[in-house]
């Protein structure tokens, strides 16, 4: 889907929420990422995280109301 140039400069309100570990693992499966830090809390902690982290591209799962 191409970016809509009319959205350039649009500012949205920050949003907070909880991302479940299962959703992170599901996303890793979808993008073919086999890194264990996205599935195993022990591996995530060994890598320096306090919990299972979300992938940098995880935000693509969210739909912005202004972009629909």
Mean pLDDT over all positions: 87
Structural class: mainly alpha
The counted number of beta strands is 0
Tell the overall outline: elongated
How does the major sheet shape up?
A: none
Low-confidence parts lasting 5 or more residues at pLDDT below 50?
A: none
Q: In percent terms, what proportion of residues is strand?
A: under 5%
Question: Can you put this structure into words, describing what you see?
Answer:
The protein has two helices and no strands. It has 68 residues and is mainly α. The mean pLDDT is 87.
Name some characteristics of this structure.
0% strand, 68 residues, single chain
Any chance you could write out the topology, listing elements then pairs?
Layout lengths: L20 H11 L9 H6 L22
Short description:
By secondary structure, this protein is mostly helical. The protein has 2 helices and no strands.
């Amino acid at each position: 889907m191409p970016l809509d140039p009319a959205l350039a400069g649009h500012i949205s309100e920050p949003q907070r929420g909880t991302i479940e570990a299962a959703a992170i693992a599901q996303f890793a499966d979808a993008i073919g990422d086999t890194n264990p830090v996205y599935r195993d809390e022990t591996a995530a902690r060994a890598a320096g995280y306090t919990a299972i982290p979300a992938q940098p591209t995880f935000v693509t799962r969210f739909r912005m109301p202004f972009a629909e």
